[in-house]
Amino acid sequence: METYLVEFIKNSNTQDIFTEHPGQEFCYILKGKVSFILDEQEFELCEGDSLYFNSNIPHYAKSWSKSNAVMLWIITPPNI
Q1: What number is the average pLDDT over the span 43-50?
Q2: Smallest Cα–Cα separation from 7: which of 63, 54, 52?
Q3: What does the pLDDT look like over 13-27, one tens digit per residue?
Q4: What is the pLDDT of residue 80?
Q5: Cβ contacts of residue 20 below 8 Å, gap of 6+?
Q6: DSSP-derived secondary structure for 9-65
Q7: The pLDDT of residue 47 is above 70
Q8: What distance in Å separates the CA atoms of residue 67 and residue 31, rounded to the nearest whole number?
């Protein structure tokens, strides 16, 4: 497993760092609001919400908070 604490600045996204790969991901929103786009379907998450998905589908996240958002991001297997 590989664990990250991700801080989104206002109106940012993860299109350059989230990529399709074998494995699974778990994300927990610690602060703010984040949308996840999984295989072209959008899910809006707020503080305290979580999401678990297979990493082999196209995916990315974007912040829609009025201020910075913070997310715990756990990936398995680790990207080595």
Answers
A1: 97
A2: 63
A3: 888 877 788 899 999
A4: 60
A5: 55, 56, 57, 58, 59
A6: PTT-B-TTT----SSEEEEEEEESEEEEEETTEEEEEETT-EEEEETTS-EEEEE--
A7: yes
A8: 9
Tokens linked to 40: 């072209």
Q: What is the SS3 assignment for 66?
A: coil
* pTM, to two decimals: 0.87
Closest CA to 69 of 53, 47, 37, 36: 47
What are the structure tokens assigned to 41, written together? 């379907």
- DSSP letter at 1 equals -
Retrieve residue 76's tokens: 């398995």
pLDDT band at residue 41 using 50, 70 and 90 as cut-offs: very high
